[in-house]
Amino acid sequence: MIFKGIGEHRPYPDHGLVTTRDWANVAPRQVRLQDLVTTKRTLDLAQLLADDSTFYGDLFAHVVEWRGVLYLEQGLHRALRAALQQRGTLHARVLVLD
């Protein structure tokens, strides 16, 4: 299994970070794919395979840690690409919510 779990929504409260600029203040770190719970069930295969899929966005995935669980909020395509390349970790900005 690639992820810890597959979710359909964000179970944590709104954190107010919307834009890439908002997330820029959160330092990136490595997270293990097997520790992540996704917040989306579907993906766009064309976006997954695109060479420039991160060109206009943040270079790092966005993860929210809430109640000890790491939720992958943005970056599902990056995470799957990492798994396809047999990498077990992903660089992500991890926002810790109390």
Question: How would you concisely characterize the structure shown here?
Answer:
The protein is an alpha/beta fold and 98 residues long. 18% of the residues lie in helices and 32% in strands. The longest helix is centred in the C-terminal third of the chain and has 9 residues, at 76-84.
- Approximate strand percentage: 25-35%
Helix content: 10-25%
Please give the CATH class.
Alpha Beta
User: Into how many domains do the coordinates divide?
Assistant: 1
CA radius of gyration: 13 Å
Average pLDDT across residues?
89
Q: Supply the CATH architecture.
A: Alpha-Beta Complex
List the secondary-structure elements in sequence, H or E: EHEEHEEHE
Kindly report the spatial arrangement of strands forming the biggest sheet: 1-3-5-4-6-2
Report the total helices. 3
- Supply the CATH superfamily name: Conserved hypothetical protein from pyrococcus furiosus pfu- 392566-001, ParB domain
CATH topology: Conserved hypothetical protein from pyrococcus furiosus pfu- 392566-001, ParB domain
Q: Please give the alpha-carbon distance between the first and last residues.
A: 28 Å
Helix-strand makeup class: alpha/beta
Largest sheet: 6 strands, mixed
Quickly list its features.
alpha/beta; 32% strand; 98 residues; Conserved hypothetical protein from pyrococcus furiosus pfu- 392566-001, ParB domain; six-stranded mixed sheet
